[in-house]
Amino acid sequence: MTADVSEAGTEQPTQEELLSVTGLQKHFPIRRGLLQRKVGAVQAVDGLDFSVVKGETLSLVGESGCGKTTTGRLLTRLLEPTAGRIVFEGKDISHVSMAQMRPLRRDIQMIFQDPYSSLNPRHTVGTIVGAPFRLQKVETPNGVKRAVQDLLELVGLSPEHYNRYPHEFSGGQRQRIGIARTLALRPKLIVADEPVSALDVSIQAQVVNLLEDLQDELNLTYVMIAHDLSVVRHVSDRVAVMYLGKIVELAQSKDLYERPMHPYTVALLSAVPIPDTARRTKRERIRLTGDVPSPVNPPAACRFHTRCWKAQEICSTEEPPLVDLAPGHQVACHFPENAEPPAAPAEAPAES
Amino acid sequence: MSSQTEDYLDAPEPRPEQVGGETFLEVRDLKVHFPTDDGVVKSVDGLSFQLERGKTLGIVGESGSGKSVTSLSIMGLHKAGTAKVSGEILLNGRNLIGASREEVRQLRGKNMAMIFQDPLSAMHPYYTVGHQIIEAYRIHHNVSKAVARKHAIDMLDRVGIPNPKGRADDYPHQFSGGMRQRAMIAMALSCDPELLIADEPTTALDVTVQAQILDLIRDLQQEFNSAVIIITHDLGVVAELADDILVMYAGRCIEYGNADDIFREPQHPYTWGLLGSMPRLDRDRTDRLLPIKGTPPSLINVPSGCPFHPRCSFSQLNGGSSETEVPELRDVGGGHQVACHLSADDRLRVWTTEIKPKL
User: Fold this and answer.
1) What is the pLDDT of residue B89?
2) Phi, psi of B52 (to 5 degrees)
């Protein structure tokens, strides 16, 4: 609880903060020429402020290139941030070395997107799932094999799978193996990067249910990175919508889906195809034109103004801050939607 | 500036002389088998369907259900040595199975065209986008390069590529994912094909771009009055586009019908399972998803009887016939067909009491 309160007004109810992020930035330099001089930077993540409360699921959503995966890799410190602070359980881990990070890896684990490339094909399931015990030199009461078999059972596989190789499993089962490995050391925080997007619909539902059951059973905290908005609504307590390296809206899942305020969120939600033919004729859809601009050269001020139908002059000159427009509902927009009480902060004039 | 309300009632009427009830594509008892060292992979095992001009058929299924293999066999893209294709594929009355490679090649591009899932690997990295569209156009039209280039630029403009004149000289890697998919649609449509097959056209794309591409396919279909087959695993996508829906499982059609019927009154337990597996934005958040148990079957050892019976929660209701007999595709009224052993009463009861309230 030593995490400092960020300037963006994180007045969370005093639940225990597990992770807090302030001004997080990651710029990947672009180097050219003989001397490899830096000629620019991909501004993958450009100033994020959020915190994760124990036991919750926070989802990061956005289109490809918005920096959600980079954020996940920063949180797990697979990447080092260019600027900003990541505080995990009161300890600043923004720039700790690999060696210092190692003991913390027990507590922060990751589930990867592709169950085909994230498991070593030459290792048996036993070796893969048992690796965390060996690497962290953790003693298990009844030996590693027993612990691994328990884990396999926990994720819905059979203990007999211990000596099999990854290629003998289907995509959904492989993802379960990956989850078993993630859970081996009972981490406190799990960063799940698109954990179900590579799976078939019927299997996707199985894995989503599994993740939810495990969360209840083991009191896990998830940071979920996903692009499928229907799945995100199903699993999340809070959702952060990202656009070009910035959070444009952060709210309780229910509020965000029922009363999206940022135009980008509104557009995203209206673009999701609904499996109901009756809706086809009466849906109102906001069509965004064009593509997401390049993060090498993001638009000035509000990064969404080039595609936004509400954009005015101020949007290209002044960057809207991420402010609370409703309790626990942060939005970075000059002209938010659905903001009926116009008692918003002075610098963000509300317009319905 | 780009906000616009979709109103399909205002859509332009298709040209009247082309609105025909006649079948344009007919597939009869299509079988595609691949002999391998482990046994014969029966990717498609007795599939039949029909498609009219101006209509869209959605083929839905999970990976390995044979949906892409079906589309490749219509296009004649299977290697003769590795795939055993049998049955009939009638395009405008002409059987494509047994036709020579050259004959099918003549039809590709002009009479039928395909949009692939991954535009980066479907386009040649060495040639400019414009060059590739020009090539496709000149194969079927005896025109000069300049005319073809103008046509290519027109097509790129039609699919919404900004500055088409300049972008025609770009290479595929210089396009973003959504633009590449548009460029591929432009290529597929450059010869005004009568049949367009879109195999997971939006799976690799973001939702906002997906919405753009689906709109584009719909608009272009209305303009060209072509027959469209859209192959996908996403029920949301077919709900947006398809007139008819065919649900595939283990190489067979297990349910076929009008899109409205499939979404309102689905009949097959697998279709129920698919609908229950998807979290939906248009409904209240449910506590739990209702997944289908188990995993899709191996196509080498397809389960006996109804291929879905090991995963079906209702296979006990019909005295074991699920395990021994392959259910036939039967009409349950109004052209809605289903391959299931459950009696009509049971099915109605299960659907109304157990499934529908939970969806």
Assistant:
1) 94
2) -100, 160
Q: Is the pLDDT of residue B38 over 90?
A: no
CB-CB neighbors (< 8 A) of B286 in chain A = 234
Residues of B in contact with A288 (CB under 8 A): 2, 208, 211-212
Q: Which residue has the tokens 């506590």?
A: B287
ipTM here? 0.81
> Do residues B235 and B314 lie in contact, with contact meaning Cβ atoms separated by under 8 Å?
no
**Which residue in the set A173, A200, A280 is minimally distant from B233, CB to CB?**
A200
**B12 at the A interface (CB within 8 A)?**
no
Asked if the Cβ–Cβ distance from A287 to B215 is below 8 Å, we say yes
Predicted local distance difference test score (pLDDT) of residue A24: 95
pLDDT band for position B14 (cuts 50, 70, 90): very low
On whether the CB atoms of residues A274 and A289 are closer than 8 A, the answer is no
Is this structure's pTM higher than 0.95?
Answer: no
Closest residue of A to B266, CA-based?
A: A276
> Do B190 and B152 form a contact (C-beta atoms < 8 A)?
yes
**Collapsed DSSP state (helix, strand, coil) of residue B267:** coil
pLDDT digit string (tens) for A279-306? Answer: 666 667 787 877 788 888 899 889 999 9
- Determine what percent of chain A falls in helix, strand and coil, rounding each to the nearest 5: 30, 25, 45
- CA-CA distance, A216 to A196, in Å (whole number)? 19
Residue A343 pLDDT = 46
- The C-alpha atoms of residue B226 and residue B170 are separated, in whole angstroms, by 29
pLDDT tier, A149 (very low <50, low <70, confident <90, very high otherwise): very high
Best probe of the B interface among A206, A238, A277, by most B CBs < 10 A, is A277
CATH fold, domain A17-107+191-196+221-274+281-331, is: Rossmann fold (3.40.50)
- Render pLDDT for B98-154 as a digit per residue (tens, 0 to 9): 888 889 988 988 899 999 888 888 889 999 999 999 998 999 999 999 999 999 999
* Yes or no, beta carbons of B278 and A233 under 8 Å apart: no
Measured in angstroms, the CA of A273 and the nearest CA of chain B are apart by 5
Is residue B266 predicted with pLDDT exceeding 60?
A: yes
- For the record, the structure tokens of B161 come out as 């590529």
Measured from the Cβ of residue B354, the count of other Cβ atoms closer than 10 Å reads 13
pLDDT in tens, A70-117: 999 999 999 999 999 999 999 999 999 999 999 999 999 999 988 888
**Selected residues 105-124 of chain B with any CB under 8 Å from a CB in chain A:** none
pLDDT for residue B56 is more than 80? yes
Segment B1-5 shows an average pLDDT of 42
Q: For chain A, say whether B280 makes contact (Cβ under 8 Å).
A: yes
Chain B residues closer than 8 Å to A57 by CB:
none
* Rounded Cα gap, residues B206 and B212, in angstroms: 10
**Contact check, Cβ <8 Å, A202/B176:** no
pLDDT 10s digits, B174-212: 888 888 888 998 998 888 899 999 998 888 788 888 888
- Identify any residues that bridge with B40 across adjacent strands, giving them in sequence order: B35
Q: Judge: A201–B278 Cβ closer than 8 Å, yes or no.
A: yes
Question: CB–CB of B207 and A231 under 8 A?
Answer: no
Tokens of B119: 């535009």
Strand order of the β-sheet with B195-199 is: B112-115, B195-199, B227-232, B56-60, B244-249, B252-258, B337-338, B330-331
Tokens describing residue B315? 């296979």
Q: Do A170 and B296 touch (CB under 8 A)?
A: yes
From chain B residues 214-233, the ones with a CB under 8 A of any chain A CB are 214-215, 233
